[in-house]
Structures are given as C-alpha cells and as structure tokens.
Amino acid sequence: AVFTAPSAFAAEGFKPNYDESKTGSLSLPQAIPAGTKDARLAWETTRRSEILNLFHDNVYGKTFTFKQVKVIKTSAKHPLTLSKGYWQTVDLSLDGRPAQLLMYMPDSAKPVPVFVGYNFCGNHGVTFDPALPVSTQWANPLVCGSKVDPTQVTTLHNTFTPASRGVRAYRWPFDDIVSQGFGVATLYYGDVVADNPADFQRFIQTSRPGEAVGDYSAIGVWAGGLSAVADYLQTRKDVDSDRLAVIGHSRLGKTALWAGANDLRFRYVIANNAGEGGAALARRNYGETLASITTDFPHWFSAKYASYANNIDALPVDQHMLIDLIAPRPVYVASAKEDQWSDPKGEFLSVVAAKSVYQLYTDDIFTTDQQPKTGQPLHSRLNYHYREGVHDLFHYDWQQYLDVGKKYLQEETSV
Ligand code: GCU
Fold this sequence. Notes:
By secondary structure, the protein is α/β, with parallel strands linked by helices. Helix content is 30%, strand content 17%. The longest helix has 22 residues, at 39-60. It starts with 38 loop residues before the first helix and ends with a helix. Alpha-D-glucopyranuronic acid binds next to α8.
C-alpha cells in the first residue's frame, strides 16, 4: 500500500509507472547553456528572465496581480496559552474579494520573520478555536472530507460542515513556530479562487474580461494571492517583511514555488510533497505525469501546458529551472516515502539539477547526488528531505523547515 491512488485519468486507462527501470533516460534543458561565458552575468541579465517567461508562456500562464489589497477589519489579539504570543484575523479584500488572513505571532520587541502559506480546509480547519467561524466558501470534499460526495466535486457549492473544524490543525504547529520566534500568516486557498474548473473560469471571465481563460492558471492566481499577502505584511511593523518565507503542501507547494519564482520578497521557499507540476521533473516518467495532471486538474495550469502531454521533450523548461528562479534564496523540497505519486526521486533530481545556478552564487550546497534515505535531511541553501509516511505535512517536516529558517531568516544578516 505504498503508492497513492491515482486519479480520474485512471478511468481513461492511465497506469502510473512505478518501475525505476522504465523511467526513461533523462535529458534536461539547461538553465545555463554549456560554454556560456560569465555565467552569472548571463543568468542575471538575460537567462533568468527568459526562463521565467518560458514558465509563464508554457506552464503557469500570465501573472495574476491583485491590484487593490485593502484591510477591511483587524480582530483583537487573542493571547496564546501554550506559547508567548497571540493570534489575530485580518479580513482583507483582494480586488473586492474577501480573503481572511489568520496570523499567529510571537510577543517580540522587534519585527519577526513570517511563514506565509495557504491552508486547504479553511482557517477554521487549522485550529480548534471556536472563535473562528466555519468558512462559507466552496469546500473541496476530496481534500477535506467535509462533505463526502466526490461525484459533485466540481458542480455543487460544497460547504464546510462544523465537523471540519480543526481537521488540518496537525499541519500547523503554531505554538512551536511561535516559540521559535517566527510568525505565521495563513489563509484559505478557496478564498482566492475555488479549486475547480468552473469557478476558475468564472473568476477569470469576471476579473479579466475579454482575456482567454486558458492564458491563466489557478496556480498563477493563488501565487498572486500570496503576493497580495506580502503586500499587506509589508504594512505591519511587527513583521520583518525582508524575511518572509512561503510554504505550501502538494498543489499549494507547486504554488509556493511559483510564487517564490515570481516574487523576490519571499526569501525562503518551501515545497512540501509538491510533486508533478511542482518540484518533480516532468520528463521523468514516474507516478503522476504531465498528461494525467492536465486531464485531472486542467485549471491548475495554462492551456498550453496540456499540449506537451505527449511530447514532453518539446517543453522548453523542466522543474529544476523553476527552482533555479529562486536562487540564491534558500529553497526546501521535501518528499515522503508513501507518496510515490509525487515521484520523490524526481523531486530530489530536480534539486540536484538546480545546483547549476545556485553554484554561481554560493558554496553552501549539499554535495551528494544520491537521494538520501529517510530521516537524513540535506540542509544548505538547497534543501531536501525524504521522510517515512504518507503525502502530508507533519511535525517532522516543520522541524526541518524551522531549523533551516533559523539559519537563514534569523541568524544571517542578509538573505
Ligand atoms: C492530487 C494531484 C497532485 C496534488 C495533490 C494535492 O493528488 O494529483 O498533483 O499535488 O492532489 O494537492 O494534494
């Protein structure tokens, strides 16, 4: 029972490959073409922006920027009981759309670094505190189990039930984070745009009338939402907005990488079990594939991406180049053993291939080319770990993220 069950695409006969000998030989596009003189200058003056544009044009679509980020209401500060700090909600309006930020902050005389990240099941799903109302936005029953009727996932306005309170609290160890001197700002990804093709289409038609829906992607819109959060955090005196980290799990890990590639305000980027279309190499045929993901979740990517389903070698980028766009900021890719669907080895190889750009800036890069065993995290500016267990975000993962965060966001004078 090691392999995560695949998707609806299975109904069309898709059988994911889990045989290492059948992954094919890897020939990856190069971030810096061989023979380039003064590679760092070439990267900074031309190559980086070329690659960023290639990701826009072929994978995640146009940048989606929320133009007006307003604060509607800031709640009182509720003291934490297990750590020295408080939580608070901030009701934002993103171009007129309500999105609620839930913040956990340490008591601190000076501004603190903050982890920014989406949650899957509402702010009421990350805590058991009854002071937070149950979200009334579209709920994803496949992910949250809040209303178990998967056949209706894209058609009904599924709502959260009170039983969804705290369902993802285990993913957010707020007291640990706060007691180590960090803040957290989380929001429900469905506040920004609901995770289904119909709602996504409506969202683009309304907010970008006259433009092609397929020129945008949900990942691109969610990434825009994270940048809107950064806009807001920059206005807060208790936040060290030069030390923001962005974190996401799974589809939201893909989103964190894309947000980090676009928005340099994210100084540390964490992609937990991000898999296909995130940290895993698209060219490696193992687990989820470009063909299956663009069939199962067409709205996550621009329409163009699906056109590479049967011709991946024509795709001018691969996911290691997405990591390169984050260089030299610390990046963390993490995989789990029972999450072969996300292709842990493909995630590791992507980090290794990203060294070609990181090494233009720093020696602080792990040296092995062998995927480590579980429980042997590799920490440097490029980070990777493989842990036991399923596709999820656990305390072990956070411990690693915080250790690396302490080094780069707290101890170092510049990041
Ligand atoms: C599905 C999908 C993955 C995604 C995951 C998630 O399993 O195939 O690409 O990462 O959902 O977001 O939980």
